[in-house]
Design goal:
By secondary structure, this protein is α/β, with parallel strands linked by helices. The protein has helices spanning about 50-70, 95-105, 105-115, 175-185, 195-200, 225-235, 250-265, 270-295, 295-310, 315-340, 350-370, and strands spanning about 10-15, 20, 25, 35-40, 45, 75-80, 120, 135-145, 145-155, 160, 170, 185-190. The strands form 4 sheets. A 4-stranded mixed sheet has the order 1-8-9-3. A 3-stranded parallel sheet has the order 6-4-7. A hairpin with a 2-residue loop joins strand 8 and strand 9. Helix 2 crosses helix 3, helix 7 packs across helix 10 (about 315-340) and helix 9 packs parallel to helix 11. The radius of gyration is 24 Å and the shape is globular. The two termini are about 45 Å apart.
């Protein structure tokens, strides 16, 4: 594999052997969504899994990070590629340098300007990379404090993979995926050979996803250490839904929130200035409606709340699902309005936002109860 070292474009190679800390770079955006592609065809040594099982466990690993860390970043499997449709590395440094020279700008300026989406070709075969001697090899390319591309190779020519078991000769593919997702986000961990003294204060517990060693026959989980690490890079975030139980968000509902965030990002509403302008526009519409209806905004909101309550009576599945989706996005938007108010760009009173969240959560629980097994 060809390598290039550019004094402006920093190439960080992580061979799954790093200290538990950050690399000093992160993906762009207020709430980045890392889209990764899967090549589930692990040929070579031994894999005791079907391609569907490999893909499923990798998606599960992403959901572990999404649901347990409470951070302002998400992982999403964007495609499952066939073995002959994916290349070992899609970030061509030499081509980037050539294009930058032609445009008269630096490679980093070009890389950042062309970063329209974060797509990580993920879990490729080894491609005879002599440098990849550990169980997997993650490569992260950064420009200053911004990650611009990343990739992962699975070393399936020297290691056995399984969906685990207690077989001491097997590596759990979900555990390995969780570690690599942390590396791709900017986390790192102790190098091989580093003593306990040099790792002191930065080493997560041995059951953590970012623990320095991948041990055959062992499953690891997202720990508090992992959550603290990723939050230190991207910040903490949580929606006011219960974390567990029947009222917690399921996979479909989390995906809806993710899709809505992608839409906001596409429309430019991740930008604080644009959001502040949007609030002023909404405030103007509210003032017009208040004059037209002779009601205050609070009264109009009460009417909306009462209407949703009435819809619960003898509502069919389709109506209940529409109400669930409306409440899901409404609670998400109210939480964002609360955060924006704290940043000084909101337009609604904190008491109104808190009351709105509370009342919508009450309706949420009633709606989920009414849906029962028809929730998905």
């Amino acid at each position: 594999m060809k390598k290039a070292i550019v004094n402006i474009l920093v190439i960080v190679s992580i061979l799954a052997l790093w200290n538990y800390k950050t690399i000093g770079a992160k993906w762009k955006g207020n709430f980045p969504i890392i889209k990764f592609e899967i090549n589930p065809h692990l040929i070579g040594y031994k894999s005791f899994l079907t391609e569907n099982a490999i893909a499923f466990r990798m998606i599960e690993a992403a959901e572990e990070w999404n649901t347990k860390t409470g951070s302002r970043i998400e992982w999403q499997a964007s495609a499952i590629q066939k073995k002959d449709e994916i290349q070992p590395f899609t970030f061509d440094v030499n081509k980037l340098i050539q294009s930058a020279n032609e445009k008269g700008i630096t490679p980093c300026e070009l890389a950042k300007s062309e970063l329209t989406k974060q797509s990580v070709p993920f879990f490729n075969q080894q491609f005879e990379d002599a440098d990849c001697t550990s169980s997997s090899c993650a490569m992260v390319w950064s420009c200053g404090d911004q990650i611009v591309s990343a990739n992962v190779i699975m070393n399936n020519s020297q290691f056995n993979w399984n969906d685990l078991s207690n077989d001491k000769d097997m590596i759990d593919i979900k555990t390995e995926t969780m570690k690599n997702l942390g590396l791709l986000a900017g986390l790192t961990h102790c190098r091989a050979g580093e003593g306990e003294q040099s790792c002191s204060g930065t080493e997560p517990t041995s059951d953590s996803a970012m623990y320095r060693f991948t041990e055959p026959g062992k499953k690891q989980t997202i720990s508090q250490d992992d959550s603290n690490g990723i939050q230190s890079i991207y910040g903490a975030y949580s929606l006011p839904f219960p974390k567990e139980g029947q009222y917690a968000l399921n996979f479909t509902e989390r995906a809806m929130i993710r899709d809505f965030r992608i839409l906001e990002s596409t429309l430019g509403y991740d930008d604080d200035l644009k959001r502040a302008e949007g609030y002023k526009f909404i405030k103007g519409l509210i003032s017009y409606d208040e004059r037209k209806s002779m009601k205050t905004f609070q009264e109009m909101y009460n009417d909306f709340y009462n209407k949703m309550q009435r819809q619960m009576v003898d509502a069919d599945k389709e109506t209940l699902l529409i109400q669930r989706d409306t409440l899901l996005i409404g609670i998400y938007q109210a939480q964002r309005a609360k955060e924006d108010l704290q940043k000084g760009i909101g337009q609604f009173e904190a008491s109104f936002i808190d009351n709105s969240i509370q009342r919508q959560l009450e309706l949420w629980k009633v709606t989920i109860d009414a849906l029962g097994s028809n929730r998905n």
